[in-house]
Design brief:
The structure holds 2 protein chains of 2 kinds.
Chain A: E1 2-6, H1 10-21, E2 25-29, H2 52-61, E3 68-71, E4 76-81, E5 87-91, E6 96-99, E7 101-104, E8 108-110, E9 127-129, H3 130-138, E10 152-159, H4 175-189, E11 194-199, H5 209-218, E12 223-226, E13 229-234, E14 240-246, E15 251-257, E16 259-264, E17 266-268, H6 270-279, E18 306-308, H7 318-341
Chain B: H1 3-12, E1 22-25, H2 28-33, H3 35-48, E2 53-55, H4 64-68, H5 74-90, E3 95-98, H6 101-116, H7 118-132, E4 141-142, H8 145-151, H9 153-157, E5 174-178, H10 181-184, H11 200-207, E6 211-213, H12 227-230, H13 235-249, E7 256-259, H14 262-279, E8 292-294, H15 295-303, H16 320-326
Parallel strand pairs in B: 1-2, 1-3, 3-4, 5-6, 5-7, 7-8
Helix pairs in contact in B: 3-15, 5-7, 6-7, 8-11
Classes of the chains: A alpha/beta, B alpha/beta.
Chain lengths: 342, 356
């Protein structure tokens, strides 16, 4: 029995390891030159501040398994379902793989912040994204482009999420807790700075999240303002002037920031879109691949033998992604056993 | 500011603009307050760019001011606009080019409404026919007249006599561009460069040697806002909006402001006088204001038209400091003369705002 997995991010790696442990041969396809996907962009994880690199190392070490064949720098160019129920995957290096089952672990792509034109990302030099900030954490230094230390930093939640104007109605789920985590990390590097989060709702859904949010306010003196940014502009000192509304006190607000951090949301990846199109998979209005059943078939799709794991079906945190990958491995293993017996 | 990022956005917001054969629709405000602008636009198109443009005297107001003030119902304005389309159709034209930003916004809004609700279009066709026995075709191309000048900015640049440069320092003039709200804020895809970083005026400024200024309140409304101005009790709000913009742009020491909306040009010009009388504040150098030009006037100046022929004496803020910087010759004694050379009498001097 063999399974083809597309995408070697956390979900793909974890599912490959679990399937391999069941004695199933796995071909793991990754278009980049390393595994880990979006995890490579992160410094520390919430809520325990564990090193992202450490988790990535654990996941990639698991791939040193006799039943796992890793194809790096390789793209799945064409995916077809055969009449015998198997799936063929044409690879960019010319190889043709055939699997008893296919698992899509194609993850998510980050919202392109330039699309929120009014925030000036790519135009104003001190507007950055949450991913850019993670890179600054890796270097243990947060500065403005000029090299000066920022005195006032604003985090804007829901950039590219829950936004009718750019046709993204879904919640990316993780930006709230990421902002809390990043605000705390920023406070640690800049003890004197004023740090403000602009939020729509604080969706602290995971264990330890609400506690972290409380600690951010009480211990780290992070301010939280309920209000969405309407626009950002730049002054002569390259500071960012923002206009927002404090919806709790019902007043418009204007503020000068040294650094503006856009908490970019998650969208269906190009790999997911392409696979969905080639395999005629049902997609949710958000573009993510729709599970066969939200409760009891979360790893199955509308196509028999094609499974999904991780953020290709919806925004998820790492805890849920890894659990979803194990669930997918279990579902596939059962499905293969059932089909083999018949 | 990173120009590359802006250029990326500009690439995404391009629109089709017809090459020739334009049906011109005048603006109520522009032809009243800046009559030279509309005359010189037609002159540039016909005699500098050699384009065919018709200026139909039967064309009326689009009633946009009444519509945005909630005194003209939508069916009425649609029927008036349908009549404009009928005039265009009868004249054998397909490319509509309104001079007014609000008219442009209204035509865009109506065409979009009809696209989504054909039953409304049918109803309006019926109203127009019953009232006037007229029928119409919708324009094949709709572009604001600033789009037309933008399209031919390089052709104008090839005929330039007075580039947007300070002849004393050799430096590019610093120009604030102000885009009317109704140009692209309602339909970003209909404006060159979109709504957030429009390129329609900055494209002209750069092509003619100037340097556009991006200042924090660049996107802010001039404050006209129809009801803000028309209802006397609201006028303070209108002035406050312009004041906010002047205070934001002043540190950049702009040489002039250019606007593509007739209302914006008027208010950014006249409110400088109002603010000076209310608070004794002026925003230009040495007690002068910041000159405000329409884009037609800007094009005319670089092409070498006489400042008084294009109506710059109608401006509240004196333009002479700008003319001196650009090295444009003018006769101060003819500023307030009519076309026969007779004196019309000079206006009274403001208390604080220097005008000569």
């Amino acid at each position: 029995m063999n399974v083809i997995i597309i995408g070697a991010g956390p979900a793909g790696c974890e599912a490959a390891f679990r399937l391999a442990n069941e004695g199933i041969q796995v071909d793991l396809i990754e278009k980049e030159n390393s595994t880990g996907g979006n995890l490579n962009n992160w410094y520390q994880l919430f809520p325990d501040r564990k090193s992202a690199k450490d988790l990535n190392t654990i996941l990639s070490n698991h791939l040193q398994h006799p039943h796992i064949r890793l194809h790096l720098n390789t793209e799945a160019t064409d995916i077809t379902r055969e009449e015998n129920g198997k799936t063929s995957v044409q690879l960019s290096d010319g190889a043709l793989l055939t699997g008893d089952a296919l698992l899509l672990a194609t993850g998510f792509k980050l919202f392109e912040a330039q699309r929120k034109e009014e925030y000036g990302y790519g135009i104003y030099e001190n507007v950055i994204t949450s991913v850019n900030l993670e890179n600054k954490f890796i270097n243990h230094q947060i500065t403005m482009r000029s090299g000066a230390l920022p005195q006032r930093i604003g985090f804007i939640h829901c950039v590219g999420s829950r936004d009718e104007k750019i046709c993204n109605y879904h919640c990316s789920k993780l930006c709230c807790i990421t902002a809390v985590k990043q605000a705390i990390e920023t406070r640690e590097l800049l003890p004197e700075a004023e740090i403000i989060c602009f939020y729509m709702d604080m969706r602290m859904f995971g264990p330890g999240y609400e506690e972290m949010y409380r600690k951010a306010q009480e211990k780290y003196n992070i301010k939280f303002i309920r209000g969405r940014l309407s626009e950002a502009s730049e002054n002569q000192n390259k500071q960012i002037i923002i206009k927002a509304e404090d919806t709790l006190i019902g007043k418009p607000l204007r503020m000068t920031l040294d650094l503006l951090v856009l908490m970019v949301g998650m969208e269906a990846s190009e790999g997911s879109q392409k696979a969905a199109s080639q395999l005629h998979l049902t997609q949710a209005p958000s573009g993510f691949i729709q599970p066969a059943d939200p409760h009891y078939g979360n790893n199955r799709t509308n196509q028999e033998g094609v499974f999904i794991a991780g953020c290709c079906s919806a925004p998820m945190n790492l805890t849920d992604t890894l659990a979803d990958a194990r669930s997918a491995a279990n579902t596939i293993s059962e499905w293969l056993n059932r089909n083999t017996q018949h | 500011m990173e120009l590359l990022g802006k250029e990326q956005i500009w690439k995404e917001y391009q629109k089709e603009i017809a090459d020739n054969n334009y049906f011109y629709a005048r603006s109520c405000i522009r032809q009243t307050f800046f009559p030279g602008s509309e005359w010189v636009y037609l002159d540039i198109l016909r005699n500098k760019l050699h384009k065919n443009v018709i200026d139909d005297p039967r064309h009326t107001t689009c009633t946009g001011i009444g519509y945005h003030s909630d005194v003209v119902p939508i069916e009425t304005i649609m029927t008036v606009v349908a009549r404009h389309f009928a005039l265009m159709t009868e004249a054998g034209y397909e490319n509509l080019t309104p001079s007014c930003i609000t008219s442009f916004g209204i035509y865009t809004e109506i065409l979009d409404t009809w696209e989504h609700h054909p039953e409304i279009e049918e109803k309006i066709r019926e109203y127009l026919y019953k009232a006037t026995r007229r029928e119409f075709k919708k324009p094949r191309n709709l572009a604001h007249t600033s789009d037309i000048i933008y399209k031919f900015r390089n052709e104008i640049a090839s005929q330039i006599l007075h580039p947007l440069k300070n002849i004393h320092t050799g430096r590019p003039l610093k120009v604030v561009d102000h885009i009317g709200c109704h140009y692209a804020k309602m339909f970003p895809s209909k404006g060159i460069g979109g709504a957030e970083f429009p390129a329609v005026l900055t494209g002209m400024i750069e092509a003619w040697g100037g340097e556009p200024i991006d200042y924090p309140e660049r996107r802010h409304c001039c404050g006209f806002g129809f009801r803000n101005y028309l209802v006397m009790a609201n006028r303070g709000f209108s002035v406050a909006n312009s004041k906010k913009k002047f205070e934001s742009m002043q540190p950049y020491e702009p040489d002039f402001i250019v606007a593509n909306c007739p209302g914006c040009a008027m208010f950014l010009d006249k409110w400088q006088y109002t603010i000076s009388e209310m608070e004794g504040i002026t925003y230009g150098a040495n007690g002068y204001g910041i000159p405000v030009l329409t884009y037609e006037e800007m094009a005319a100046l670089v092409l070498g038209y006489d400042p008084w022929d294009i109506g710059l004496q109608m401006h509240q803020v004196a333009v002479e400091p700008l003319l001196d910087k650009m090295g444009i010759p003018y006769d101060p004694d003819k500023k307030y003369c009519n076309s026969r050379g007779e004196s019309l009498g000079a206006p009274k001097c403001p208390t604080y705002l220097k005008i000569k």
